[in-house]
Design a protein that fits this description.
By secondary structure, the protein is mostly helical. The protein has a domain of 166 residues. 76% of the residues lie in helices and 0% in strands. The chain contains 21 helices and no strands. Helix 17 runs antiparallel to helix 19. The model has no long low-confidence stretch (mean pLDDT 86).
Length: 391
């Protein structure tokens, strides 16, 4: 069912329908479609996301991720930490069904600790997604940054409480339930070798942090530099590189991104946003209700982060604002949308990892309720603190 759902075409159809219902002339609709597709923000967005997929596939196919994990295990003693490290590390790269990459490693470690299929599924699934609220390589964040025309680092900083609470929730409702077990004592030389191996393989990820979050270099330029350096330093055969390149260049991704930008523009020029704003004001609806539940619904129905951001965020712009967006409200909307994604039966990571570990879906959902509620509670607390105390 998920494979039949082409979100790009659906969003384009919605844009066309809004244009028709707003009584825009056919020439005006076509003009706005074309202008949205070729504007610099759209082209940079498409380029950035394609480079992200290329970088992710280069590091995955090049063995960097496996080497990073084995390097960390050389100097981390707590087996509970080494159990979730593969999932957390894979989570730094937005690859499709990324939880399946770490699943075999989690399976091996989990079996040694006598964990159930539900335990292994929950830990792998949860820690795979802890970074998606703030890691600058995730298309959803880049899309939100482009929609509201704010620097990416501002989105990251505003949503930091979500990632911190997700890590805390994973530890409280996941790791702390497991028996404490230390790995055998390691030699000092092995630990030093592990640190060296980590730095050697993780430098592209560390470079992203340095370029984007510290030096505040534009994302597409940062990615281009890092991808070229990875290609130059990785000894890949021509056939292998062409395979990775072909795997990374997805027309579906390009269509989805372009369709979101077209949808945003049509909403702006049609005047429907002001109508929606006036309607909500007349109804006396608290902005917190649509801010949280509209993205949640889209996330639940699609299981795709870019979908809830691309569809619901432009619709929520009367509440969030465009010229000077309220990033606290945007953070709440993101929390709602990602709650839907995590619970969606169409979320590919959930489907494949549950099947891999043969976990009971009902038990898995029960395991997810408390940590998700914890993250959502933190999001609402941040909104109330910002609303009543400012800052």
């Amino acid at each position: 069912m998920k494979k039949k759902l082409n979100l790009g075409f659906i969003i384009l159809s919605a844009s066309l329908l809004i244009g028709i219902l707003s009584r825009m002339r056919a020439a005006t609709i076509l003009e706005n479609f074309l202008l949205a597709a070729i504007e610099p923000d759209t082209l940079k967005l498409v380029g950035s996301i394609l480079l992200i997929y290329l970088l992710g596939n280069l590091l995955s196919e090049g063995g960097n991720l496996r080497n990073i994990n084995s390097s960390l295990e050389a100097f981390i003693k707590d087996r509970r930490v080494t159990l979730i490290l593969p999932s957390a590390l894979i989570g730094l790269l937005p690859v499709v069904a990324g939880a399946m990459i770490s699943a075999p490693i989690v399976e091996d470690s989990g079996n040694k600790m006598g964990l159930s299929g539900e335990d292994k599924t929950f830990l792998n699934y949860w820690f795979r997604h802890i970074w998606e609220y703030t890691w600058p390589l995730y298309p959803g964040l880049i899309l939100a940054s482009t929609i509201f025309s704010v620097p990416l680092y501002r989105i990251v900083l505003s949503q930091l409480p979500l990632t911190l609470s997700a890590i805390a929730a994973g530890c409280i409702f996941g790791l702390m339930r497991l028996p404490c077990a230390s790995s055998p004592k390691r030699e000092k030389g092995k630990a030093i070798k592990g640190i060296y191996g980590f730095l050697l393989n993780a430098w592209p990820i560390l470079a992203i942090i340095l370029f984007v979050l510290v030096l505040k270099i534009e994302l597409i330029l940062s990615l281009l530099i890092i991808v070229l350096l990875v290609i130059a330093t990785t000894r890949l055969k021509r056939e292998k590189f062409l395979f990775i390149l072909k795997k990374s260049l997805s027309w579906r991704v390009c269509l989805l991104v372009v369709s979101v930008m077209i949808f945003k523009r049509v909403l702006e020029v049609s005047g429907i946003l002001s109508v929606l704003s006036e309607l909500f004001n007349r109804m006396g609806v608290s902005p917190l209700f649509p801010l949280f539940f509209l993205p949640l619904l889209v996330g639940l129905l699609t299981g795709v982060t870019q979908a809830f951001v691309g569809i619901s965020f432009p619709l929520l712009s009367p509440f969030i604002g465009m010229s000077d967006p309220n990033l606290t409200y945007a953070m709440l909307a993101y929390a709602g949308g990602f709650t839907g994604v995590l619970l969606s039966p169409f979320h590919l990571c959930l489907v494949v990892t549950r099947e891999y570990f043969k976990a009971d879906l009902g038990q898995l959902y029960r395991r997810l309720i408390m940590p998700i509620s914890f993250v959502v509670s933190v999001a609402f607390i941040v909104v109330f603190l910002k609303t009543f105390f400012g800052g």
